[in-house]
Design goal:
single chain; alpha/beta; Purple Acid Phosphatase, chain A, domain 2; 5'-nucleotidase,  domain 2; 2 domains; 6-stranded mixed sheet; 16 helices; 31 strands
Length: about 500
């Protein structure tokens, strides 16, 4: 674009839109190729640098500030809000992990935040009162920018335990809500409309495809699927972006807005690496984090496990040695036939051989109950076919599970069939009852995650609580089983 066009009387306006998502308590920089990478100190330094260079800078966060750090877990998000306050985002939407400490606690954390938090679809059942403001209109350099926050029920599974809280069912209802808000406020001469979503990159594209162009949505900034991109996807003339996960990079739009036509005239998008080459450090944040870290170091330095070697979890959509150790620990602790360990519950890609309480907490930050279900062999097969459906292999944010020892499953992707489903060397009996353990979060979403209803499960017997604390169970197992190793032993074979 020629510079002279920017000087046409108030028509063309330049803004910089920075965005993060799925930060998950990634507070500290790490050494990568002999340089520091990531961390909120350099992220803050980059934000400050951009704000000093240009007054028309907006910073947005598309959900999941919480979880992934002992600092977050120890203080139930209070420390995270303090840190994010120093980053001074202009607008934030909720992710699924913002509800991990309970909706009531989330409302308390919102009061601590010095930034606006929007969400258009969490509401109190009975009178449909929204918990958060659904939208936010920002005015900058004469521009009016409409932000709308979207988080569907398919993602916010954690709230299933909150009986008074409801949300949208899926993207069709979300699209209707977007239309309702856009229709209500487009009359205010909105120059740019941005959806802040936390539903996954593929779902963002589906959502964009069903939005009415007359609603004027220009950009979707998303999260949840931790997707790294080289350039925006464009669906229905809507730009769709995401900035991976953590603080190693930040998304950056340089936009020219045509205020006569209320649209984007031109843009440039890039993923900016947060490293010591181009990002100054922020001593304020380092001092705050340092004071919080001092309080946690002594508690979290205790050694809780000793593996024979480093165990890894490189991909959530495969059987891994680290996931296998967790599922084995639960199976053996309860003397059950099978424990389905959620792959997404294992939050680190590697751990060991010496494991401190900090390592463990960062790897397995969730605590809660586990349930024992009595399932027929046919029901286990039904659940496995649902878990291994096509979406699991296409990178969609589906639930995937680690199998405990003794199981051997062979699945054909091309045939969509279980070619083998064996336990202790024998093909499982469709009519035999097996004891199966799952965490409370997965129990609360039984149909969505396993394609099983509570009614059909309870025909075999009432589910029972195995433990009220998964974390205590795992720590006790590790304490009493030194020098743990692991052998994948063919638990899951995926053909084709």
């Amino acid at each position: 674009m020629e510079y002279r066009r920017l000087n046409e009387v108030n028509r063309y306006k330049k803004i910089t839109l920075l965005h993060s998502n799925d930060m998950h308590g990634d507070f500290f920089a790490e050494s990568v190729d002999e340089k520091l990478s990531g961390g909120v100190s350099m992220l803050s330094g980059y934000l400050t640098k951009c704000r000093n260079e240009d007054p028309n800078v907006i910073y947005a966060i598309a959900g999941d500030m919480f979880r992934g750090s002992v600092i977050d877990s120890e203080f139930h998000g209070l420390s995270t809000i303090q840190i994010v306050n120093l980053l001074a985002p202009d607008i934030v939407t909720l992710g699924n992990h913002e509800t991990d400490y309970g909706v009531a606690h989330l409302l308390f954390l919102e009061k601590m935040a010095t930034f606006p938090i929007i969400n258009s679809n969490l509401y109190i059942k009975g009178n449909d009162t929204r918990l958060f403001k659904p939208y936010y209109i920002m005015e900058i350099d004469g521009l009016r920018i409409l932000f709308i926050g979207i988080l569907t029920e398919e993602v916010i599974s954690q709230t299933k335990g909150e009986n008074l809280i409801g949300s949208f069912i899926g993207i069709e209802d979300a699209a209707k809500e977007v239309g309702k808000i856009c229709n209500a406020y487009n009359g205010l001469d909105i120059d740019l409309t941005v959806l802040l979503t936390h539903i996954g990159f593929e779902e963002d594209k589906k959502l964009a495809s069903i939005l009415d162009p007359s609603w004027g949505v220009d950009i979707i900034i998303g999260g949840h699927s931790h997707t790294f991109i080289d350039e925006p996807a464009i669906v229905n003339n809507i730009l769709i972006v995401q900035a991976g996960t953590g603080t190693d990079q930040v998304g950056r739009f340089d936009l020219i807005i045509d205020t006569d036509h209320n649209c984007i005239d031109s843009y440039k998008w890039q993923a900016v690496p947060i490293n010591s080459d181009n990002c100054p450090r922020d001593e304020r944040i380092e001092k705050l984090i340092g004071s919080i870290k001092e309080k946690t170091d002594l508690k979290y330095a205790k050694v809780v496990a000793n593996f024979d070697y480093e165990l890894t979890h490189p991909d959530r959509w495969m059987q891994t040695d680290l996931g296998g150790v967790f599922s084995d620990a639960m199976k053996e602790s309860f003397a059950i036939d099978l424990y389905f360990m959620g792959s997404g519950s294992v939050r680190k890609t590697k751990m060991g051989p010496i494991v401190t309480f900090q390592d463990f907490t960062e790897c397995y930050p969730y605590d809660g109950k586990s349930y024992c279900l009595k399932l027929k062999g046919s029901q286990i097969k039904k659940a496995l076919l649902h878990i291994y459906r096509d979406e699991a292999w296409l990178g969609d944010h589906t639930e995937f599970y680690q199998l405990s020892k003794g199981w051997h499953v062979v699945y054909s992707k091309s045939k969509h069939e279980l070619l083998k489903c064996e336990y202790n060397g024998e093909e499982i009996d469709d009519n035999k009852i097996y004891t199966v353990g799952i965490a409370e979060f997965h129990y609360n979403n039984l149909f969505e995650f396993f394609n099983l209803t509570y009614e059909e499960v309870k025909e075999n017997g009432e589910p029972i609580i195995l433990t009220t604390s998964d974390v205590q169970t795992l720590l006790e197992y590790f304490e009493n089983n030194k020098h743990l190793g692991f052998d994948l032993d063919g638990r899951l074979e995926v053909l084709d």
